[in-house]
Amino acid sequence: MPESPHLSAEALLSPRLEQRILPGLERVQLALAALGQPQRAFPSVLVLGTNGKGSTAALLASLLSASGVRVGLYTSPHLVRLEERIQVAGRPIPAERLRTLIASLESFPALSYFETLTVAAFLEFAAQRVEVAVIEAGLGGRWDAAATCEPVVSLLTNVGTDHQRWLGESRAEIAAEKAAALRGRMAIVGEWDEEVETAIRREASAPLTRVEEWARVEAAAGDGQRDHVEFTVGKVCGRAVLPLAGAHQRRNAALALAGRAALSQLGIVPPLSPSALTSGISGVRWPGRWQWLHTPRGRLLLDGAHNREAMTALAASLDTQGLAGVVNLVFSCLDDKPLEAMARVLNPRVRRVVVVPLASPRATDLATLAAAFPGCATAPSIAEALAMFADDPAPILLTGSLRLVGEALAWAETLHE
Length: 417
Description:
By secondary structure, the chain is of the alpha/beta class. It is 36% helix and 19% strand. The protein has 15 helices and 17 strands. The strands form three sheets. An eight-stranded mixed sheet has the order 4-3-2-5-1-6-7-8, sandwiched between helices. A six-stranded mixed sheet has the order 12-13-17-14-15-16. Helix 12 (339-346) links the parallel strand 14 (327-331) and strand 15. Helix 3 packs across helix 9, helix 3 (53-66) crosses helix 10 (274-282) and helix 7 (171-179) runs parallel beside helix 8 (194-203). The longest helix is centred in the middle third of the chain and has 19 residues, at 247-265. The radius of gyration is 21 Å and the shape is globular. The chain starts with 8 loop residues before the first helix and ends with a helix. The model has no long low-confidence stretch (mean pLDDT 92).
């Protein structure tokens, strides 16, 4: 496609097909070599896993920023704007800068959508002279474009069942694909069990440690409105408000703290400071994960849970927060997700249900969605789904896909225009 100053970054990327998933690192490696290996201009941390990658990456970036480190953060997918995926010092890349970077990569037409954005992130982080880059892997590990970052520290959150079409049917197969990217001077594992431990140990090429050897985060008494936690990292202890709710987020916070401690031990970032760690935990912002919105259509609870394990964690939060059996539900998901398993978790915990389509070629069709929620209603959009609850003051949970959450956030923005 010829470059045009009138085309946005999204338009420039569109021929590369967001849904196209291509195994192999050769395309990215060739592009990076031609561009002077920008990924080597900064130390990086690679965050892998089935669930919690984005939260862990955001927490680690916040912890580093609170210590005065200039941080690059690369995550996916975005919720509302493409620029969210590439951040420097807590700010998304400017739209025009991203457009320029994407246009500069048109001489590498073989790169996929995700590969192009990954290379663009490395170029931006090198240009902005970040001191550390926190890189969230996409769906894979072994052949994930993000794994070309040559990390000094790798973090593995957990191994669940997602993207089985590409990673393998069993958790052991999925673990092998993800663990193959555990490289660098240190690798820290958040959760494992007998089913996946052997594969992780076999495939990892960095010295392995467990998160418990580095850090602990536990629930603490608080005001009942926010999640207060107590943390221990080596000999450093403290207390903070964790804006991300749920026991699973405490595990993510512990892994982020472990990554922060490892970087300090390697001499890459300043020593641990209780006040900086408290500020970093309390200051994290990661939309779409147990996020409340107050709108004219009522109180909305947004959560991007999109596989069985994430939905189980969401259900646990509903139970502990006294919301099980109280909330109404707006649901949708992509066609490679375990719809029936997620519905089994949600059905006993919600009242009325409306299913909606997603604006994606990978969306599950409405008839299939409706079959998983007997007696539910259907609506063509989020706005019309919410209108169906106009006579009901109960909170409305929107879950099943980060795309659904993104569409909800975009809809909420229109209310203020």
